Amino acid sequence: MKSTLTKITTRYVETDQMGIIHHSNYLIYMEQARLEWLDTLGFSYKRMEENKVLLPVYQIDIKYKNPMKFGEEITVKTTLKKPPTTRVEFEYEIVNQDGVICATADLTLVFTNALNFRPMKPLPDFLKACELLFDGR
Prior knowledge:
single chain; 137 residues; Thiol Ester Dehydrase, Chain A; five-stranded antiparallel sheet; two-stranded antiparallel ribbon; 3 helices; 34% strand; elongated
């Protein structure tokens, strides 16, 4: 389960004046998909925050390829690129209901101690679960 697929139906409120999904909403779709990826792995942001772990965005690179419109059902593929260190890296592919790639992205988050805001290693059980995904590659 290095990858998960999340289905989302775009909403009218997410469109811009041209009737196209505004580019800022792609980040929201990716976050929703990442939360579902974590849930599938058996973790949650809430659980990490309870353990004083934050995951701020360090870097994101989005390539917008084709527009999305109101009412389309999109699928966000979320993939863990490699076992995490102090950073965790995901790649995304967003396609519409016709299978057309609308965007791709690479995202890096940094495990951060909520008490002092310093980088830290992932929680041991999270790291182990991620490493198991790469066994046997």
